[in-house]
Recover the amino acids of this structure.
């Protein structure tokens, strides 16, 4: 089953395809199965969507060196611990996507993007979602999408169980129809990825494969005698 999509109202969000999240770039927080073949597949899909007339948007983790999500910002803490900060849970990650570093760069030709939305710049708050940080402050993505008359979104990127899920869920909460392209996403772990997919489906997000994005009109060739 293919999905008929209006290219003028359907935007694409490419979530955090950055060096530090990939094996391809030996990232500090590399997600499983993010080798060169995965990056090549994401790049090809993004170019194809662009060629079909869809507006492409990207999110980019863009942290200061002292970001609260880094275990190095907390004395005697280790990577992947969860701590409480001001009544909220915070997973502590290895430093990643630090402003000004090569592995903070997006691994796709930036000229393909209508806009790049940077997130996680406030040192006191994490920002998995492309729409809001953990303090509920808007990133500006919603306003940008609305300014381009976008009401439906195709979402893919890294990681399925964190920033992709948070972005897709906030998109639904913000009133957008959402299609997630599963094979263009990779997750941190199998268990949390499976749970994230179930949560997204329950929220009304449609999980699809890339070939289902386009409506294919098959026309028979007619021979005029």
């Amino acid at each position: 089953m293919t999905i008929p999509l209006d290219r003028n109202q359907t935007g694409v969000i490419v979530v955090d395809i950055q060096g530090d999240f990939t094996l391809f770039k030996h990232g500090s927080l590399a997600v499983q199965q993010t080798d060169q073949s995965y990056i090549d597949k994401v790049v090809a899909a993004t170019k194809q969507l662009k060629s079909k007339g869809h507006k492409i948007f990207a999110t980019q983790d863009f942290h200061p060196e002292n970001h609260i999500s880094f275990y190095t910002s907390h004395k005697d803490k280790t990577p992947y611990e969860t701590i409480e900060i001001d009544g909220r849970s915070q997973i502590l990650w290895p430093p990643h996507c630090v402003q000004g570093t090569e592995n903070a760069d997006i691994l796709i030709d930036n000229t393909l993007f209508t806009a790049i939305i940077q997130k996680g710049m406030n040192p006191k708050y994490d920002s998995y979602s492309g729409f809001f940080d953990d303090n509920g402050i808007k990133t500006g993505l919603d306003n940008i999408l609305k300014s381009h008359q976008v009401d439906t979104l195709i979402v893919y990127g890294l990681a399925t169980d964190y920033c992709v899920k948070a972005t897709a869920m906030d998109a639904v909460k913000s009133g957008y129809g959402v299609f997630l392209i599963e094979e263009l996403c990779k997750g941190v772990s199998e268990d949390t990825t499976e749970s994230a997919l179930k949560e997204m489906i329950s929220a009304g997000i449609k999980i699809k494969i890339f070939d289902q994005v386009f409506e294919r009109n098959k026309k028979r060739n007619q021979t005029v005698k």
